[in-house]
Amino acid sequence: MSYLVDTHSHLNHEKFANIEEILERARASEVEYVIVPGWDLASSEKAIELAEKFENVFAAVGFHPHDASKADEQSLKKIVEFASHKKVVAIGEIGLDYHYNLSPPEVQRRIFEEQIEIAKSVKLPVSIHNRESDSDLMEILERQALTDWTLPKRFDYQINPQPRGALHSFNSKYEIARRAIELGFYLGISGMVTFPRTGSTIGKKNAESELQKVVKLIQPEHFLLETDAPYLAPVPHRGETNEPAYVSFIAEKIAGLQHLNIEDIRRITSYNSYKLFAVGKKPEAKIAYQIRDSLYLNPTLRCDSDCIFCDRKGEAMVKGHNLHIEKEPSAEELIKEIGDPKKFKEIVFCGYGEPTIRLEVMKQVARYVKDNGGRTRLDTDGHGNAINHRNILPELRGLIDAVSISLNSTDPAEYQRLMGTPNGKQWDSMLEFAKEAKDFIPEVYMSVVGVDGVDIESAKEFIENEIGAKFRYRPLF
Q1: CA pair distance 414, 88, nearest whole angstrom
Q2: Residue 318: which domain range?
Q3: Residue 198, pLDDT score
Q4: Which residues contact 322 (CB under 8 A, 6 or more apart)?
Q5: What is the rounded distance in angstroms from the CA atom of residue 225 to the CA atom of residue 193?
Q6: What is the SS3 assignment for 3-46?
Q7: Residue 413: what pLDDT?
Q8: Is 318 helix (H, G, I), strand (E, B) or coil?
Q9: Which of 89, 365, 421, 429 supports an S-S bond with 277, CB 3.0-4.6 Å?
Q10: pLDDT at 220
Q11: Do residues 273 and 318 share a domain?
């Protein structure tokens, strides 16, 4: 069962009196955990008190840019002391705010960097406030990222370092979002994502805000949900006092923009909260997992490729699902997970490995799906013939309704680099498989991941004109 996490909620604000009732309403909306950030010493201490009192509440401690002038050597030492508390999960709310400049910009920058250094020393992520300060903020993060800035691993098998923090209540342009993600930061999405576009919308029915456009372009694996209560209440509660229960409206809006189910957003963002803040539960590995209305099967972690953008050897997470299986499932186990295949739009052979490595299991399961009125799809690198040392396409006739083949580049050398294949033979094998697949499988797609340097338009033209397949684009971020 998935749940929601409000990763930034000022329950330590004077507007909130009966915290028990607020948390009861949050639980009724399936908000399982709440993180309460401080903005100075007193509010940080209050955040810790709330975390001590309520099991599902956690704290962050720090000086907000408005209060940066209050921070001195002694008070920053107190933040370090607070950070040792077992329920403090971040240094925050810290950052820059050039809209009000309640503290001088030079003081904001100095205290921001000093608190980043604290976060590094205590191995905690940061929760960052940013208003009208994109240039200075990113310059500081770029420079700080060049030094040692790692956090403890949440999983034994995790290869990549932990993300460094979150840009709280994100409201900047796409370019800032993408660079922040590259530097190791999540985007905190608040109720602003539900706000209609401001300014003239003449002739633009349902015109999107800039933030909504960003949320559509970025993969939800980079989002956290937050209310910023008592501020920024989402539609339909705009203008009211915000509270953690309202985070569900934010999740619903993101789901609509992403064309995902609300369950997908809950699962993905709760895992993100776990990964960054160690708040929540570690998801169990799955051999079958649902995304939108489709059921995906995870038959193996083995693969003949080692794509540079694949995390098969790391966390092996997809849309909040843990695919890091210890044992390959049998056909019978996969069939049991499926049940009635008509419940799903399609049954997809995918996972984090290459499904054709387990061709006989795949065929047995596909036969069950087809015999029981279901639809099937195979996601593959197109190396099935080379893997099985024969042409497997005739064996897939009548079993597979659609196939999606990873192309990723029209240049054989670039393809070999991206796919991590040991020699150049896989390129020829993949192309042969793609061209011949049309004779045996009704729908043939080829996909390209949006890696820097890959010519998406030329790949699309190649797929449609040279191969005669349908083009699919897979965002990297």
Answers
A1: 45
A2: 288-474
A3: 61
A4: 282, 283, 284, 285, 286, 315, 316
A5: 11
A6: CEEECCCCCCCCCCCCHHHHHHHHHHCCEEEEEEECCCHHHHHH
A7: 87
A8: strand
A9: 89
A10: 96
A11: no
Token pair in block for residue 273: 């909260």
Structural domain count of the chain: 2
Segments of the chain scoring below 70 in pLDDT? 1, 153-162, 198-206, 423-424
What pLDDT score does 362 carry?
98
DSSP lists the bridge partners of residue 446 as 405, 471
Could you report the per-residue pLDDT of 397-409, keeping only the tens digit for each?
999 999 999 998 8
Q: How far apart are CA 206 and CA 209, in angstroms?
A: 9
Looking at residue 418, its pLDDT comes to 84
Cα(41)–Cα(56) distance, rounded to whole angstroms?
22
Alpha helices in 372-451 (DSSP H): 384-388, 393-396, 412-419, 425-437
Token readout for 465 is 């004109």
For CA atoms 84, 85, 90, 93, the dihedral sign is: negative
Q: Identify the burial level of 84 via C-beta atoms within 10 angstroms of its C-beta, where 0-12 means exposed, 13-18 middle and 19 or more buried.
A: exposed
pLDDT at 476: 76
Whether residue 212 is found in the same domain as residue 349: no
Tens digits of residue pLDDT in 261-275: 999 999 999 999 999
pLDDT of residue 1: 57
H helix runs in 204-341, sequence order: 210-217, 247-258, 262-277, 331-338
CA distance 191 to 65: 21
Judgement on whether residues 468 and 385 belong to the same structural domain of the protein:
yes
